């Protein structure tokens, strides 16, 4: 039975797992996305999201707490400056996992884990453009009215030359 055994061991010892997740988290923070196996991506999400939440509060204590997990000054600087300012309004869910298929060598499921706010394709960049447009579900009815009015005004003009040709 696995009662209370929720940690993903990744077939590693505790020290190896801690080092692996620390390195993956540093790479994710610096490069904004990492391609790895699905199991490592899921374990990394659980590891890195609390650290990003801690980075919202830029105090010496929070920096020391996060540094105890990551052990990388460049990653800490990037996390507390660039990443924290971008995710300040988000209440959680800072990462996204996208499945990529299987790896050729060992048929392992691969996935890309990325920081949500740093992707221009899915991020707020496209959403801001669409905010100006009015969102209705029945927009088609108005278009039909406009097209019938346009055809009604265009129809007498088209009918007048036809009558002139018929009279000749």
Structure description:
The protein is mainly alpha-helical. It has a domain at 14-123: Ribosomal protein L17 (50s Ribosomal Protein L17, Chain: A), CATH 3.90.1030.10. The chain is built from six helices and three strands; from the N terminus they run H-E-H-H-H-E-E-H-H. The protein has helices at 14-31, 38-55, 60-70, 73-86, 124-131, 139-167, and strands spanning 33-37, 95-102, 109-115. Helix 1 packs across helix 2, helix 1 (14-31) crosses helix 4 and helix 3 (60-70) crosses helix 4. The longest helix is centred in the last third of the chain and has 29 residues, at 139-167. It is globular and about 40 Å long. It starts with 13 loop residues before the first helix and ends with a helix. Residues 126-132 have low confidence and may be disordered.
Summarize, please:
The protein is mainly alpha-helical.
Explain the layout of strands and helices:
Layout: H1 14-31, E1 33-37, H2 38-55, H3 60-70, H4 73-86, E2 95-102, E3 109-115, H5 124-131, H6 139-167
Antiparallel strand pairs: 1-3, 2-3
Helix pairs in contact: 1-2, 1-4, 3-4
């Amino acid at each position: 039975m696995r009662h209370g055994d929720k940690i993903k061991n990744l077939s590693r010892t505790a020290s190896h797992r801690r080092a692996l997740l620390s390195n993956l988290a540093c790479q994710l923070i610096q490069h904004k996305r990492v391609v790895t196996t699905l199991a490592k991506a899921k374990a990394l999400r659980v590891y890195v999201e609390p650290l990003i939440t801690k980075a919202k509060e830029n105090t010496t204590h929070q920096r020391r707490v996060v540094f105890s997990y990551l052990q990388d000054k460049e990653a800490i600087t990037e996390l507390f400056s660039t990443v924290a300012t971008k995710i300040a309004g988000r209440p959680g869910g800072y990462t996204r996992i996208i499945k990529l298929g299987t790896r050729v060598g060992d048929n392992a499921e691969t996935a890309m884990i990325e920081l949500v706010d740093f992707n221009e394709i899915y991020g707020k960049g496209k959403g801001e453009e669409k905010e100006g447009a009015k969102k209705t579900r029945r927009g088609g009815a108005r278009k039909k009215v406009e097209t019938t009015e346009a055809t009604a005004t265009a129809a007498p003009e088209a009918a007048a030359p036809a009558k002139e040709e018929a009279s000749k």
